[in-house]
């Protein structure tokens, strides 16, 4: 079962169990709608996630302040600090925009050089950072290469073929050969 990260609990807010959430979804109004259920995975833990039902959500200082039915006070909210909030990818409707992709749709696709048509590797992950989004490609030897997920480099994605066509800058693949 693949999961999609939709937020991260940054900190508690107030005394009644409300939490400040860093949004990691394009559709916060859907993911954090009252009645929706998310799973919270504590940071640096292999423990099973905790199901949380959204009671209320409101915008505040570039974050959402969210009230969950299961979090009744500040102490409980503090225990969730740093937890990732996820939804099951199987529960998501397919994207109606042909240029939008969920991370799980890209993972496992072949990365192909658009100039030569040769297969460079496989997309192993999608990394999100403040500097932008990156496709994590693994080649046949298991070496990872970070590919900037921008239109100038990722020129085409074919769901039907399971292929990401890329136009890599000179020297990008050779960065892995550095000691």
Give the proportion of residues in helices: under 10%
Spatially, the strands of the biggest sheet line up as 1-2-5-4-3-6
Radius of gyration: 19 Å
Number of helices: 3
What is the H-and-E element order?
EEHEEEHEHEEEEEE
Which oligomerization state do the chains in this entry correspond to? single chain
For the structure shown, list the relevant keywords:
8% helix; 3 helices; 6-stranded mixed sheet; 12 strands; 179 residues; 6-stranded antiparallel barrel; elongated; mainly beta
Short description:
The chain has helices at 28-31, 74-79, 103-106, and strands spanning 3-13, 18-23, 37-41, 50-60, 63-68, 84-88, 110-113, 119-129, 132-138, 144-148, 154-158, 163-166. It is mainly beta and 179 residues long. It starts with a strand and ends in a 13-residue tail after the last strand.
Structure description:
The chain has 179 residues and is mostly beta strands. It is built from three helices and twelve strands. Strands 1-2-5-4-3-6 form a six-stranded antiparallel beta barrel. Strands 10-9-8-7-12-11 form a six-stranded mixed sheet.
Secondary-structure map:
Elements: E1 3-13, E2 18-23, H1 28-31, E3 37-41, E4 50-60, E5 63-68, H2 74-79, E6 84-88, H3 103-106, E7 110-113, E8 119-129, E9 132-138, E10 144-148, E11 154-158, E12 163-166
Parallel strand pairs: 7-12
Antiparallel strand pairs: 1-2, 1-6, 2-5, 3-4, 3-6, 4-5, 7-8, 8-9, 9-10, 11-12
């Amino acid at each position: 079962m693949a999961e999609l990260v939709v937020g991260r609990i940054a900190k508690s807010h107030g005394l009644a169990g409300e939490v400040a959430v860093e949004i990691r979804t394009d559709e916060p109004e859907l993911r954090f709608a009252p009645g929706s259920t998310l799973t919270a995975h504590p940071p640096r833990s292999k423990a099973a996630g905790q199901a949380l039902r959204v009671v209320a959500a409101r915008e505040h200082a570039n974050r959402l302040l969210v009230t969950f039915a299961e979090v009744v006070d500040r102490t409980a909210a503090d225990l969730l600090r740093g937890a990732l909030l996820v939804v099951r990818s199987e529960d998501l409707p397919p994207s109606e925009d042909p240029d939008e992709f969920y991370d799980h749709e890209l993972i496992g696709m072949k990365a192909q050089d658009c100039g030569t048509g040769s297969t460079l590797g496989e997309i192993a992950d999608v990394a999100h950072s403040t500097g932008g989004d990156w496709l994590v490609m693994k080649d046949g030897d298991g070496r990872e290469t970070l590919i900037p997920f921008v239109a100038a480099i990722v020129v085409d994605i074919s769901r039907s073929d399971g292929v990401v066509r890329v136009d890599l800058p000179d020297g990008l693949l050779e960065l892995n050969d550095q000691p």
